Amino acid sequence: STLVLAQVNNPWEVPEKYLKMENPFKADESSLSIGKSYYDQQRKTCHGEKGQGDGLTAKTLDVSPSDLTLDDLDTQKDGELYYKILVGRDEMHAFKDEIEPDDIWHIVNYIRTFYEDE
Questions:
Q1: pLDDT tens per residue, the chain (118 residues)?
Q2: Using the 8-state DSSP alphabet, how is residue 92 labeled?
């Protein structure tokens, strides 16, 4: 698929400091609720209701949004996902100026539930 080729040909380079970062929040009901709220506001239009990369605007993008239900999500560290949401890339919007750092961690917790549901 286009997405897979884009990721293989242009893998994310995540700085070491982010690879070592630990999520300071447990994925409890409160964190997941906050994460879902931000996801629904900011991410669902591209990544879709269940994180499968099939949101309403996904078809209008040059590079398909990531399918957050795939096995590779489980191999990524929380700090990697945090970094990707923070800085964005290409058509994926950077949220560093719009979402508080703590809330990005809650989004990481929430998107992990997509993988667990599979």
A1: 344 444 445 677 899 999 999 999 999 999 999 998 988 776 655 555 675 555 556 566 566 657 666 667 778 899 998 998 888 877 676 778 888 999 999 999 998 887 765 4
A2: B
CA distance 100 to 102: 6
Whether this model's pTM surpasses 0.85: no
d(CA 43, CA 99) in angstroms, rounded, equals: 12
Going by C-alpha positions, the residue among 51, 75, 53, 79 that lies closest to residue 64 is 53
Tell me if 4 sits within 8 A of 67, measured CB to CB: no
